[in-house]
Design goal:
The chain has 13 helices and ten strands. The chain has 335 residues and is of the alpha/beta class. The chain has two domains: 172 residues, Periplasmic binding protein-like II (D-Maltodextrin-Binding Protein, domain 2); 155 residues, Periplasmic binding protein-like II (D-Maltodextrin-Binding Protein, domain 2), CATH 3.40.190.10. It is globular and about 55 Å long. The N and C termini lie far apart (40 Å). 47% of the residues are buried. This is Putative 2-aminoethylphosphonate-binding periplasmic protein. GO terms for molecular function: thiamine binding; thiamine pyrophosphate binding. Keywords: Signal. Pfam families: SBP_bac_6 (PF13343).
């Protein structure tokens, strides 16, 4: 066993012990944070139904991919979850395997790699996740332009767009809304420069708890996190799809190439795309990739369809190809 594997297994065991758990991991999933997209509930269900223990993992999409590349010759993880552009990059870098899980044929074309190296499990829409109480009487912003107003200084957060997929997706949404495209990110760069005057908070990892607490009153984030905060945690929050428009993007999973436990990896990937696994995503207010898993009762809790018409899909391959160029410009011109 490599030193890296020994260290990782010890770290995982230590994590389990400090969390009060009495087991070590059976399988490893990179970027499965319990506060994000109800991964906490999904991991519990996997443990209950499959008997597979998976420890939480708070990497973001970029950190997960970097780790897979670093461990290419001696993989530690079995499966990985990330934004679609990172799934495409992982396939290009040769760090994920080909596997077509159960319900593969029900995944719409364009939301899966033809070779099975990545496939969508659910999607979200970018907008404003707003803690209304933390606004101290200010109006809930309704547009990208609203966020540039001085009254919101120090109140806006967005995840680091050079590393976290939700941050990059937010940048793409801004760029598209102001006339940019995947070959021209100048509108987004100019927007972030203007937003910098409002002293935004830019974390690298999911900031769900920081919105609930009011530390970040307005976060560029997905609809599912806002709905979860409202309906599960009872917070006084609102989700806004900005007037200028937004985008809808999928999150995908892959089996890690030469995974330590490929059979367990297949069971996990089959499960998250099963009717039961997909229902759990729907109950967490994510759009399941298997459309039949969405119930009318859950649909009623979303914003009306008239609002969602402002959010469009994009060319995900072009989005992935443009990512590094945007990140470099952001670091050079904004950061």
């Amino acid at each position: 066993m490599s030193i890296l594997k020994q260290f990782t297994k010890l770290a995982v065991l230590s994590l389990g012990l400090t969390a009060g758990a009495s087991y070590a991991a059976d399988a490893i999933c990179y970027n499965c944070p319990p506060e994000w997209a109800n991964w906490g509930g999904q991991l519990q269900l996997i443990k209950k139904d499959l008997g597979i223990s998976i420890p939480m993992d708070n990497k973001n999409s970029g950190q997960a991919l970097s780790q897979l590349v670093a461990e290419k010759n001696s993989p530690v993880a079995d499966v990985v979850y990330y934004g679609v552009s990172f799934g495409i990059k992982a396939a290009e870098k040769g760090v994920v395997a080909s596997y077509k899980p159960k319900n593969w044929d029900k995944i719409p074309k364009g939301l899966k790699d033809p070779k099975g190296r990545w496939f969508a499990i659910h999607s979200g829409t970018i907008g404003f996740f707003v803690n209304k109480d933390a606004l101290d009487g200010r109006p809930v912003p309704q547009s990208w332009k609203d966020l540039l107003k001085p009254e919101y200084k120090g109140m806006i957060g967005y995840l680091d767009p050079t590393s976290a997929f939700v941050g990059y997706a937010s940048a793409v949404a801004i760029n598209q809304s102001f006339g940019g495209n995947m070959s021209n990110f100048t509108p987004a760069i100019n927007y972030f420069k203007k937003l910098a005057k409002n002293d935004p908070i830019v974390p690298k990892q999911t900031a769900y708890a920081r919105v609930i607490s009011g530390e970040i009153p307005i976060l560029l984030d997905y609809d599912f996190n806002a709905y979860r905060a409202k309906y599960k945690d009872g917070a006084n929050v609102q989700f806004v799809i900005p007037k200028e428009g937004s985008i809808v993007v999928p999150y995908v999973m892959s089996e890690v190439k030469n995974a330590p436990h490929p059979k367990l990896a297949h069971k996990i990937l089959d499960f998250v795309l099963s009717d039961k696994g997909q229902r759990l995503w729907a109950e967490a207010y994510l759009r399941p990739v298997i459309a039949s898993a969405m119930t009318p009762e859950i649909e009623k809790k979303f914003l009306p369809e008239s609002d969602y018409k402002r959010a469009k899909p994009v060319n995900f391959a072009k989005m992935a190809a443009a990512q590094n160029g945007f990140a470099q410009r952001y670091l050079n011109e904004v950061h």
